[in-house]
Structures are given as structure tokens and as C-alpha cells.
Specification:
- The structure holds 2 protein chains of 2 kinds.
- Chain A is α/β, with parallel strands linked by helices.
- Chain A has 5 helices and 5 strands.
- Chain A has a 5-stranded parallel beta sheet with strand order 2-1-3-4-5, sandwiched between helices.
- The longest helix of chain A has 14 residues.
- By secondary structure, chain B is an alpha/beta fold.
- Chain B has a single domain, classed as Alpha-Beta Barrel (TIM Barrel), CATH 3.20.20.450.
- Chain B is built from 11 helices and 8 strands.
- An 8-stranded mixed beta barrel of chain B has the order 1-2-3-4-5-6-7-8, surrounded by 5 helices.
- The chains are: A alpha/beta, B alpha/beta.
- Chains A and B meet through strand 2 and helix 2 of A and helix 2 of B.
Chain lengths: 122, 270
């Protein structure tokens, strides 16, 4: 399985990358919105985990990533993994392309299990 | 943002250059006549993929900065290839349309490296309209004054349009692979080739077919009076040492075969 990890937190991203690599996944990473969108348009992957706040003055530009994901790969499972977990944000993320919302912090095994479950369902 | 990809790209020496020759066909011989410099982002980053590299630069609005980094790397690489004469370098139209100092800066680099400006072809890549038309036209005049030439890249794809042909008066029109691919099997593509051949002739431009992968495609392209070719049929992008060897050789193309197009520069409009 090839996973796209999008998070501006370098340490968290590196930890997730190591975790998924150790479980036999291929991993693509991106730390900012523009990088993520470019990667989405030029690579194929089986699932994506997307943070909403990507180190930008624009604020929650993870929504731009969700839009790009839905344009380029409408059926790819997407987990939104964010510290912004108000009902308004959660609902917006699910409306704009996320298949599941998981609030930070969550355990990596839980993320993996959710992703595998989504991949089976979708 | 110390870990941002743009900082890694713009770090000194981070961008590298590979080369893909453009061949001229004379009867049975193929001679490399122009060397296209293709820039690569830093290895072990997402920008190592050319498509990601240039799309990211556009999304960041950093075309002028990235183009300067790419040109600097390419000129230094070309200066080390003793037998390289004519060479081309890709430039975003947005760079020429935003950065009025860009062409003078290129001129300074050419002089510093003892490279003849008349050997340089600016391959104009156009995506979007994020520039000032007056600055673009001024940059084009600067290129002419420098003695360099202009090629319009990706003709037939997205925003490489007729207005830009009129603006640029390019010496070369590079036909995108969307027209070249399978032209031997598609009468519609052959109709486009015929029309573009007439346009190029009337405008005084020379057509270059890029993305040529088979003998059959080349045969049809030659039938449409195209004499300059680039693509995996002739050579993949190669290192400076390899391109130097190619420049010394006359090549007979390999047998027909299709190969995956892993390459390609500045792909689609956003």
C-alpha cells in the first residue's frame, strides 16, 4: 500500500513515516500545501492522511489539499488528522473530501487500522 | 520555515542538470544539434520528480527564483562541456513577465562563464497568465538584443497558444508529445502536423518534434517536413559526460519500441 502523509509537523511526519514503512507500506510525504498539491497531481497512492493546518498564513489550507485530492483521485480514501476538531471544522472536512476525521493526538496503530478499514469499505 | 521545500530547492548547488539532445535528420544520419538542459530538484525531496518540481514552483509563485537557480546550474554545467555549442534552457513565461532583470542577469552569467549568448535558446514554458504583458515583451526584446533565440515549448498543450507565438516570434516551435505521440496512427494528429507546418513556415519558425518514441512516428513527422527531433527514440536525458560523447557521435536510432515516458518537464497548466 502506498500512503501519502501530509503534515507540517516534521517530527510527527517522520514518526508516521517510520511507522508505516515498518509495516510494509510505501510512503510519500509532504509538509506544506503547495508541495502536497504538486505531489497529488504527479503521483499515485492508495490512501492519504491529511492535516488541515499546513504552516501557512492562510490558515487551514489543508482544505485546498482536500480539494486537489478530490479532483485528482476522487475515490482514494482520505483521513483528515487534525488538532482542529470543532464540529464546524470536522463537518467541513468531511464535506470537502475527507472520508474520516480523526482528532489529534491519536495512536499510530489506530490511524493504520482506520486506514485499512477505509480501504476495505471504499 | 526551515524545512520548507522551496528553501531546499534554492540552497546553493541543490538544483542539478541533465541533458537531452535534439537531433537533426539528414538522410540516414542523425546529428545532435541542440542540447536541452533539463533541471532537477534536490535528490531525496519531492522536487526530484520534474513534474512536482515545476508545479510546486508555480504554486509557490516562485518561478523567477527557481528559474534563476535552474539557469545558474545549467550554465555552469554547459560551461564544463567542451564540445557543447547550441543549448536550450527552459524558462517560465511568468519569469520573463515578472522579473524585468532576469535576462540582463542571464547575460551577466553568460559573460562570467565565457558562454556565447548566440548559442543559447530560451525555451519558453507558459502556464497561466500571472505576469505583466509589458514586462514579458521587454524581456523578449532583451533576449533578441542579447543575440539569443526563442523556442516556444509544449505547442499544442494547454496555454502554449497562438497569442504567445505572435508575441514571441519564436525561431522554434516545439510540438508537444500530445501531438507527436501515435501520429503515425492518427489522421487527426497528422492534420494538426500539416497545419502547424504551414503556420511555422509562414512565420519563419522551425518545428521541433518532442517526445518521439518510434521510427514510425519519426517517418510521419519527416513526411511533414520536420527535421528536428527529440525523444527517447534518440536519447533519454543523460549526464554531462554522456551528452559530450553523444555530441561526438552520429547516431542511428534504435529499433522501434515504446518506452514509458518517465520524463517530462513542465507539464500541465494549473
Amino acid at each position: 500500500m502506498r500512503i501519502l502523509l501530509i503534515d507540517d509537523d516534521e517530527e510527527l511526519r517522520a514518526a508516521m513515516e517510520q511507522f508505516f514503512l515498518a509495516r510494509g507500506c510505501e510512503v510519500l510525504c509532504a509538509g506544506e500545501m503547495e508541495e502536497a498539491v504538486a505531489v497529488i497531481r504527479h503521483h499515485r497512492f492508495d490512501a492519504a492522511i491529511v492535516d488541515l493546518e499546513l504552516n501557512s498564513v492562510e490558515g487551514l489550507d489543508g482544505f485546498s489539499v482536500l480539494k486537489a485530492l478530490r479532483q485528482s483521485c476522487p475515490r482514494t480514501p482520505v483521513i483528515v488528522y487534525s488538532g482542529h476538531s470543532s464540529p464546524t471544522i470536522t463537518n467541513a472536512a468531511l464535506r470537502q473530501g475527507g472520508n474520516r476525521f480523526i482528532a489529534k493526538p491519536a495512536s499510530l496503530p489506530h490511524l493504520l487500522a482506520s486506514m485499512e478499514e477505509l480501504c476495505q469499505v471504499l | 520555515m526551515p524545512g520548507a521545500l522551496i528553501d531546499k530547492i534554492l540552497a546553493p548547488g541543490a538544483v542539478s542538470t541533465v541533458f537531452q539532445p535534439i537531433y537533426e535528420v539528414n538522410t540516414a544520419d542523425l546529428n545532435p544539434v541542440i542540447i536541452e538542459c533539463l533541471s532537477r530538484g534536490p535528490a531525496s525531496t519531492n522536487a526530484a520528480h520534474p513534474g512536482v518540481f515545476f508545479e510546486y514552483a508555480q504554486l509557490k509563485g516562485a518561478e523567477p527564483l527557481v528559474d534563476r537557480a535552474c539557469i545558474l546550474a545549467a550554465l555552469h554545467a554547459v560551461a564544463r562541456i567542451a564540445n557543447c555549442r547550441r543549448f536550450s534552457i527552459n524558462v517560465f513565461a511568468a519569469t520573463l513577465g515578472q522579473d524585468a532583470g532576469f535576462v540582463p542577469w542571464v547575460a551577466q552569467q553568460l559573460e562570467r562563464l565565457h558562454l556565447n549568448p548566440s548559442n543559447l535558446i530560451f525555451e519558453l514554458v507558459e502556464h497561466g497568465e500571472a505576469w505583466d504583458a509589458q514586462i514579458l515583451l521587454s524581456s523578449l526584446r532583451d533576449i533578441r538584443a542579447l543575440g539569443s533565440q526563442i523556442a516556444l515549448d509544449d505547442v499544442g498543450l494547454a496555454n502554449s497558444n497562438f497569442q504567445r507565438i505572435l508575441d514571441c516570434k519564436p525561431e522554434f516551435l516545439k510540438l508537444d508529445q500530445c501531438i507527436v505521440r501515435d501520429c503515425d496512427r492518427d489522421s487527426r494528429r497528422q492534420a494538426l502536423l500539416k497545419s502547424l507546418g504551414i503556420i511555422a513556415k509562414d512565420l519563419g519558425s522551425t518545428l521541433i518534434a518532442e517526445g518521439v518514441e518510434t521510427h514510425e512516428e519519426m517517418t510521419v513527422l519527416r513526411r511533414h517536413d520536420i527535421q528536428l527531433f527529440q525523444g527517447f527514440l534518440f536519447s533519454r536525458p543523460v549526464s554531462a559526460a554522456e551528452v559530450s560523447a553523444l555530441l561526438d557521435a552520429t547516431v542511428v536510432p534504435k529499433p522501434p519500441q515504446r518506452v514509458p515516458q518517465l520524463e517530462y518537464k513542465r507539464l500541465r497548466a494549473i
